[in-house]
Amino acid sequence: MIKAYILDTNVLLHDPLSIQSFEENTVVIPAVVLEEIDTKKRLTDEIGRNAREVARILDKLRTKGKLHEGVELPGSGRLIVELNHRSHDQLEKHGLEKTNDNRILAIALNMMEEAENSQNIVLVTKDALLRVKADALEVHAEDYLTDRVAQFDHIYKGYSEEWMDSDTMDRLFQKKNLRLIEAGIKTTLPHHFYIFRDLSNPSRSALAMADEKMEKIDLFLGESDGIWGIRPRNVQQRMAMELLTRKDIPLVTLVGKAGTGKTLLSLACGMYLTEDMHQYKKLLVCRPVVPVGKDIGYLPGEKDEKLRPWMQPIYDNLEFLFNTNKATELEDILAGMSSVQVEALTYIRGRSIPDQYIIIDEAQNLTKHEVKTIITRVGEGSKIVLMGDPKQIDHPYLDEYTNGLSYVIERMKHADISGHMKFEKGERSGLAQLAADLL
């Protein structure tokens, strides 16, 4: 049965292509939504870009006919721009003021009166309070879920724990590798890690890693001596260090709670490959400029001085790696090396970045479009590492389902040039681990 989906402004600003996500049903865009989108089109951020994209899509559809009468969408379905041809009596009836949200609700109520089955009228909004208000007025409301990926708790981990009989484990240690069938594995993903435990002796274990062709697993011993004074403290860090130092894996994603060692481990591996091994010409470290809590406003000084408060977490880790006590010591070291560059993501569009080790910290605050823009900047011979905690999102329009980091992990896990690791154990301090678990 054909349904009518009424889209709120935040749905279109979140995903301009959402109008094509409702199959053969009718998509209704209230005129007040167009008014709100019009106020956003001059913004220079992601919201402004999406507002302009919505305008272009609607303008193209306008060539097919009058939007207020309805036009066919590409593929299937219809689009109608609803001008609220009926009065606002429904608002007055329920004692509601003529706010933009209430005007959208009024259209839903009017369409429900005209429909044969009121359950076929659905309001789609990412505004939880509007869904609550709609529920009070007996309007069926839903969140926009089409672009969601796996919830963080169910996101791809990059490794799995399996049981293996003693004879098979002996062959793995002897031959150093096994075909998937020999190891009792039906399917796998490129660069997926396995923690095998002996069925007859659970204290005996082996680490293995699937190759990029997903034909066999190789015995993995891991790095135990450490890099740049940083030794892996748990098995996830050992496996992540393998991904971070492999030239043939140009895309690495890392997720984990605060204090699990993502940034420090990545910086250590980046410094090692750049300064010691000379595999890359430069180490580029970037973070999105998204504040926690209230923004501190404009900052004085030149670009580097303005960025310093935002980039301070990176400098903290570099001070630890270089074992410096004063900020001026680190600045002198970085000035002398000239191969380490720390900057915000604001200036990355239009760049081509070849032969560099690129670290993107706090990638959970990036949108799908932003993360695509960043990865498409990567040139020949470069490696990019995206890391973050999807549980700690400061971006007002993202959540653990829709952020760019989770999106990349789920979309790229089948690619033979990518690797992923989910950190489980915090190593910063006992207090940090307890806070990450309980707060």
Q: Which consecutive residue ranges, at least 5 long each, have pLDDT under 50?
A: none
> Strands of the biggest beta sheet: in what spatial order?
3-4-2-1-5-6
- Secondary-structure class: alpha/beta
Gyration radius (Cα, Å) is 26 Å
CATH topology category name of the largest domain: Rossmann fold
Approximate strand percentage = 15-25%
Number of domains: 3
Kindly state the number of beta strands: 17
CATH class of the largest domain: Alpha Beta
Helicity level, as a percent range? 25-40%
Shape: globular
Terminal CA distance reads 45 Å
Structure in words:
By secondary structure, this protein is an alpha/beta fold. The chain has three domains: 4-142, 5'-nuclease (Rossmann fold); 149-221, Archaeosine Trna-guanine Transglycosylase, Chain: A, domain 4 (Roll), CATH 2.30.130; 233-438, Rossmann fold, CATH 3.40.50. The chain has 15 helices and 17 strands. The strands form three sheets. It has a six-stranded mixed beta sheet. The longest helix is centred in the C-terminal third of the chain and has 20 residues, at 303-322. The radius of gyration is 26 Å and the shape is globular. It starts with a strand and ends with a helix.
SSE topology sketch:
Blueprint: E1 4-7, H1 9-14, E2 26-30, H2 31-38, H3 46-61, E3 71-72, E4 78-82, H4 89-93, H5 100-114, E5 121-124, H6 128-136, E6 140-142, E7 159-164, H7 166-175, E8 177-179, H8 180-183, E9 193-198, E10 205-210, E11 216-219, H9 235-245, E12 251-255, H10 262-276, E13 282-287, H11 303-322, H12 327-337, E14 340-344, E15 356-360, H13 368-375, E16 383-388, H14 404-412, E17 418-422, H15 430-438
Parallel strand pairs: 1-2, 1-5, 2-4, 5-6, 7-9, 12-16, 12-17, 13-14, 13-15, 15-16
Antiparallel strand pairs: 3-4, 8-11, 9-10, 10-11
